[in-house]
TrEMBL record:
GO terms for biological process: defense response to virus. The keyword rRNA-binding does not apply. This is Type III-B CRISPR module RAMP protein Cmr4. The gene is cmr4. Residues 18-299 form the CRISPR type III-associated protein domain. The keyword Metal-binding does not apply. InterPro entries: CRISPR-assoc_RAMP_Cmr4, RAMP_III_fam.
Length: 304
């Protein structure tokens, strides 16, 4: 208890797999790329919590979004219970879910005999911090946490390799059940100390806007966009705050928040998720837009 406030929290792991290239946009930049992806303070790609929370809210709200693009809390009180009230509501209420950032963990990269997932020491350390927080809050690790733990900790007897002209250690990791079903994951993880290997993995598209009558690029209609490649992994989490008093939460919700697995099952219905096992669910989500050109689709795994 801190200052009379009981710290009653539970955690859920999020592992997001990029089914297509992603553009979680950072707005117009000043570098060689006009529209870059979001990056953290050291320049590594990341999906900030606000960019992740928005699509989660939209998925929850479904057809209960009003003309101003906000959730009608009277129609979908569970969404406003989870994520908080909307700006135009008379009373402000915090949601019981705290959505963490989704840092990049790894990207697919070519090696001379195939491909591997590629990461760097910094990204592993950053992800390990999230892993430690959630596992300490819960005081146990379930199926999804175990798979994330393999990615983070099974780094012994690595083989020296060269990836994008930089040195890396290549590890063959066994024991995956969920991740082994994903197309661009084969149990190989290369770890480098050089940030440039991540920079070289990002994709830059040059796009244009044509006049449909003349088929000529319109003035100012040529620009470049940065993308995180398909097959990349992001690892983050959700923190369930049992202390939150939210007017949109019914009496049953208080019982759910103190039980990880019951709350996880409840979220699976909210997010229209498929059951993978008793403690893992999955669903698809669009992040960063660009759906009309086949971008922005992730497969989200939610569990303990």
């Amino acid at each position: 208890m801190v200052n009379g406030y009981s710290l009653l929290m539970k955690g859920l792991f999020i592992l997001a797999y990029a089914v297509t290239n992603l553009h979680p946009g950072a707005g117009r930049g000043y570098g060689i790329v006009d529209l870059s992806v979001q990056k953290d303070q050291l320049g590594y790609p990341i999906i900030y919590s606000s960019a992740f929370k928005g699509p989660l809210k939209a998925l929850c709200a479904s057809d209960a979004i009003n003309d101003s693009g906000r959730i009608n809390c009277k129609r979908k009180p569970e969404c406003c219970c989870l994520f908080g009230s909307e700006p135009d509501d008379e009373e402000s209420s915090k949601g019981i879910l705290n959505v963490l950032d989704l840092p990049l963990f790894s990207v697919p990269a070519p090696i001379h005999d195939g491909f591997t997932q590629l990461s760097v020491d910094y990204l592993i350390s950053r992800t390990n911090n999230i892993f430690n927080i959630i596992s300490e809050i819960n005081e146990y690790v379930g199926s999804l946490g175990n798979e994330i733990s393999l990615l983070l900790h099974e780094h012994e007897s690595g083989e020296e390799r060269e990836v994008y002209n930089s040195k890396a250690k290549l590890f063959n990791i066994k024991g995956f059940r969920i991740l082994s079903s994903l197309p661009l994951f084969n149990g190989k993880l290369a770890v480098s100390k050089d940030k440039k290997v991540i920079d070289k993995s990002l994709i830059i598209y040059t796009r244009n806007r044509l006049n449909l009558l003349t088929k000529v690029v319109t003035e100012g209609g040529l620009w470049s966009e940065e993308y995180i490649p398909m097959g990349s992994f992001f690892i983050g989490g959700l923190i369930i705050d049992e202390n939150v008093q939210n007017n949109f939460c019914g009496g049953e919700m208080g019982k759910l928040t103190c039980d990880n697995l019951r709350f996880l099952s409840y979220l699976s219905k909210v997010f229209h998720a498929s059951k993978i096992s008793d403690d893992i669910y999955s669903f698809y989500l669009n992040i960063g837009g660009k759906e009309s050109i086949g971008k922005g689709l992730v497969k989200v795994f939610l569990g303990v």
